[in-house]
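U., I forgot to send this yesterday:
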Amino acid sequence: MLEGFADSLRKSLGAEPAGDRILVDECQQGLMTYRLEIEPETLSCKPRIRFIATEFKGSGSAGKTRKSFSWTVSDNAYADLHAMTSKVLAAADPEAEVIDVRGVVGRWFDQLTGVRHVNHVPVVAEQYGPAKQWIEATLSEDKYGILVTFYVEYQGRSPLSFRVPLATIQKLYTSLQSLL
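Result:
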């Protein structure tokens, strides 16, 4: 029901699907299941990629969280996505310089919950227009593996965040390598 509402809202804003929705990965990490899908679309004749991230426990019949955002890309969307995923994977490299933007409370809370900060990517991608837009990524590791939390920031607005396992980003990167 809500998906139909989201589709009608996008159409009323002028966004049109430009292809089929592609399931990048669906995997279980710990008690959670994570799904990442991408969908090409156009808005005002500009190519965009819609990212749809879903996470849920168990069968997904209750407690499902779905977040979606659209990002303007060039005519070579594969190259744009490849550049974004390569920045995240470079930050996951053990030899990479570690950026830690957490404060004292964040460090204390992570220590309390057993989460290890891996790295932070301040700018995965950015765009300028009427308002600046950018994507940040924070990599953290718990006992189940590394999760990447993406923050989609619009200047003057609250950020949108979603999480996917690092293995999903690696799978997307590998798929894009074969297309370039």
